[in-house]
Amino acid sequence: MKEKQMQSKDIELYFPVAIITCNRINHLRNCIESLSRCTHADQTELFISVDYPPDEKYVDGWNKIKEYLTDVRGFKKANIWFQEVNLGAAYNEHFVYDKVFEQYNAMIFTEDDNIFAPAFLDYMNQMLRRFEKDPKVYSISGFNMLQSPHNSRIFKNYTFQPWGFGIWKDKWNYLRNMKWEEVYEKYSRRIFKIMGLYFQNKWLFCVYVGRLLKEDTNDPKKGLTDATLTLLYYLLGLYSVFPSKSLVKNKGFDGSGANCCIEAVPHIEEVDLDENLLFQYDSTKKVPVSSEWYLPIPEWAQKSSKLNKDPLTYLLYFIMGKEKYFAWRKKKGI
Question: Of 3.30.830.10, 1.10.3720.10, 3.90.550.10, 3.40.190.10, which CATH number belongs to 8-328?
Fold first, then answer.
């Protein structure tokens, strides 16, 4: 039987790409130029928010970006905002989300340090349409270094991967408005699930304990990090969809960004991109789930974490209960 493949010709409206930036002119130029070479770029709107420089040393790069963005070509339209005060990356990201979701029910988001394979937009638009009504799929990832199960062209995984992803307005709002403390407390009573997390991914376990003990922010804008979302995906049984071969390469491990250090994950640069112009897959096959955890957490991230990795902390919380545990901590001066 001939495989049925979802083709780009089935798509009439293409979802926009949102980009946040501040002063990294070379990164932004490479990002936009790679997007302009994607199939369907000429039918895609850009939404770009340029944050105001937080310090004098960033002004030169910011001015160069202002000049560069006066003539963006290759897209259906470019919508550009220049912030008058420094928002910071998290609030700048939410600013552009809100602008996009005024007009569209889904979008593709990237920071300025990613470059893209030619089929990236084709893949994103197909996946955003296919999984829009799937109650368990909450995002579409473009970057991948995982082994695809059963040699499938696409697969599902608990990990939220932020390097070029697609998301829907309603699902994003659900995550953003969620009462996270209630979720963490509810799952604290499910000892097998939480201790299973400890044995599978100790770093994510320590993130959970930190959230449970309120040692980390629950600001719905600052707090929606890839670690937070991966943790929520694991607890709630949600997934992101990945391509078998990466359609994104991250170029931000040069010390120029807010989160990625030079020594972090050197093999990221070695990712080979899928060079096909269109993304084709068998839409009749069931999408497999990969249980592999995404990337080993780099040493710098482990050292920077102040959260308690000791499972005894969680076990005491589980045995004593919330009120008695916090009363005990207060008595001990912890």
Answer: 3.90.550.10
Sheet with 154-157, side-by-side order of all strands: 77-82, 45-50, 17-21, 106-111, 165-168, 137-141, 239-243, 154-157
The rounded Cα 248 to chain-centroid distance in angstroms is: 12
Q: Would you list the domain boundaries of the chain?
A: 8-328
Tens of pLDDT along 138-148?
999 999 988 88
Cβ count within 10 A of residue 293: 17
Distances (CA, A) of 326 to 4, 258, 318, 320: 57, 34, 12, 9
Cα dihedral sign, 196-201-204-209: positive
Task: Tell me the pLDDT tens digit for each residue of 184-228.
Answer: 999 999 999 999 988 888 778 888 888 888 755 556 556 678 888
